[in-house]
Design goal:
Blueprint lengths: L3 E4 L2 H6 L5 H11 L3 E4 L2 H28 L1
Parallel strand pairs: 1-2
Length: about 70
């Protein structure tokens, strides 16, 4: 059986996050040995940085809201 190789870049990772149902299907295919998934370290670092920025913004918005009380 031939194995399909898939490289997930930053733009795809943002659209197809780890909890997305389509990503779960990719993982299943990988576990069955039909698919090999590659995610470059830089893509993970870029996504991590974006997630941290998003959460920091949410924390700052909450802080501003609490300061108004």
């Amino acid at each position: 059986m031939d194995v399909f190789h898939l490289v997930i870049d930053t733009s795809m990772l943002r659209k197809l996050h780890f909890q997305h149902p389509d990503f779960a299907r990719l993982l299943l295919q990988s576990q069955m040995g039909k698919l090999k998934i590659y995610i470059p370290r830089i893509a993970l670092e870029e996504e991590r940085t974006a997630q941290i920025a998003k959460h920091m913004k949410a924390v700052e918005e909450m802080r501003v809201t609490f300061d108004k009380l």
